[in-house]
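INPUT
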Amino acid sequence: MALIVQKYGGTSVGSPERIKNVAKRVAKFQAQGHQVVVVVSAMSGETNRLIALTKEVAASPDPRELDVVVSTGEQVTIGLLSMALQDIGLRAKSYTGAQVRILTDSAHTKARILNIDEAPIRRDLQEGKVVVVAGFQGVDEKGSITTLGRGGSDTTGVALAAALKADECQIYTDVDGVYTTDPRIVPEARKLDTITFEEMLEMASLGSKVLQIRSVEFAGKYKVKLRVLSSFQEEGEGTLITVEEDTNMEQPVISGIAFNRDEAKITVLGVPDKPGIAYQILGPVADANIDVDMIIQNVGHDGTTDFSFTVSRGDLDKTVRILDGVKAHIGARAIESDKAAAKVSVVGVGMRSHPGVASRMFRTLAEEGINIQMISTSEIKISVVIDEKYLELAVRVLHKAFGLETA
Amino acid sequence: MALIVQKYGGTSVGSPERIKNVAKRVAKFQAQGHQVVVVVSAMSGETNRLIALTKEVAASPDPRELDVVVSTGEQVTIGLLSMALQDIGLRAKSYTGAQVRILTDSAHTKARILNIDEAPIRRDLQEGKVVVVAGFQGVDEKGSITTLGRGGSDTTGVALAAALKADECQIYTDVDGVYTTDPRIVPEARKLDTITFEEMLEMASLGSKVLQIRSVEFAGKYKVKLRVLSSFQEEGEGTLITVEEDTNMEQPVISGIAFNRDEAKITVLGVPDKPGIAYQILGPVADANIDVDMIIQNVGHDGTTDFSFTVSRGDLDKTVRILDGVKAHIGARAIESDKAAAKVSVVGVGMRSHPGVASRMFRTLAEEGINIQMISTSEIKISVVIDEKYLELAVRVLHKAFGLETA
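OUTPUT
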């Protein structure tokens, strides 16, 4: 008998019919003797509908109240799934984030989980109940409802699995696993049976939308066995995300090509080339809770330098406003921004022991005439920022250059 | 400076535009120096949409989970109204029923308020905030979300007004006050400036949908000054619901004609005419939380009697099933039921001192050939059950017979 946490995304619970299918799948696991905790997202489209409503009543909705509105999406799903489970003869009980007491900080719309009281859930499981928990939400010390940000339901699932010391956390989605790249762009893309946490982290953070990055971090940190599966297929093992590197000699150097369209590039021109300038520029940006991705500082000349970084497109205007505010203080000549950027990356733990990955990547892009605007590297990935219009082309040629279509 | 509790129903908050209008109205009251607590219902149509969803996933949705789903309707509205208030420069904070801690019993979908912790709301008011509370919902001792049943938002408003010792509880609705009867049936129906709690109680319980009956009971019990107003008119004093009877000599004997289409009649035939039979019949019905309205027991003959009562039509099938279960035990000959019943009543505190109301009512109906099936009287009302098809006719002729079109 195992304790399994299953997380179903918005598409998997997108209609009453699909919710009933999820109930049947959960029943199958329970019939096998497993204890099951189910984490669900809002029905697909619901969160967007709610956000649209808020924009109709307020130009810039208050984050606390935004969370009050948006968190209802998951609350509807937990009630519906619980009654669907009861309807087929199971015992089930729903919990909102506040009811579990998933304690978070007070950073509304982007809250982080501080603690989970898993005792009531454990009691329900021991009584033979299926426990259904609202993903994406929690409660702060003041009792205000918080949300974890988009994709936060994955994080809820993994955090619960960690708190309950679950045997496995299964993330059900509309794809049947993690692919070498997006099959919509490269039809030859191949499903991976396993991928390491590190690689998954790079793939997720780079825009492979299968799992939310924080959930992968969490899973790695707390050694939660994580599996990505399709909620629309009866069979299939999905992709297991492993702590250990595959020791197979035949393991390919590169596991996949990741990409992210949601990149905006900002360049601060002509700042004084002196210690502390990076902090002066990025400190106010971080204070506004804006995630900065790639950061490049050019070698200076004439005592000044140029400083570039990327943020999500949704954060661009806010970031530019912040920098305009500190421009005089830091002595910058100008702020430039570009919304039409995109990032493409090759990812693989194998590159640690295989030199030449970077040069092959750069040569491949050069042969297609694709200009590289920024480069950033880590032990297991190389990322470049390019003009968005070349994104699909870049992904296709890199997938082929690294032989990913064949295992 | 007064403390005002304002309750806005589903139609009044039925669209983002209307929510913004409510925000403006609240702002006007605050600008006059008043402290304002706003209680809101779900946006019109939302509760029905949610209930429809539950019926698609489960044949007979679990009441606890039904409350989890349905309570999201009001939660969306409090968030939207709070951000709309902030958008026009006010400070505002939303509370779900659980966040206020509106403690109720655990009778899901029909819960009763046990206690309200008003201290946090009072603190917010003193800080100059508008407090926005979700109507219709509370939380039980176990932390489960409960709902008060349809129309429960009125009850929330009045209960909050009582707990806060508010100066007035204003119920905003889509009508501009309480009328002598439904103007859709009698165009000459007249708005009343005042009505007593007792009369309002009879009018509400008899199907004048302006206010939910429990809210009127509450208001009477805790001496909350209650006013019914239109949320669609800028001016107008609405109808004030008073503790005191109007001492005006010219006061009409009858205040209004109330009616209720939602009546189903059940007759238990040939039960032994002995003590305790009423309890044996109605005990199991009450245990199932079914409200029984009119009750008639005929004079017995041959040692048996017939026992009739009315319930809401939605409860009819359940009631018949319950009675079929106890039929043998109580020794009844048969159970008959009739869905096409309707109740019409004349209401007025004036009838206490004016005899002849009953005879005028019965004569008026007889002149139109309308058969009376059941009669029930109280100090301030006379109700009759008639065939539903005569309902409009009965209301029209009674309104005229009691001279209600002229003040």
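end of record. Chain A has two domains: 3-174, 256-401.
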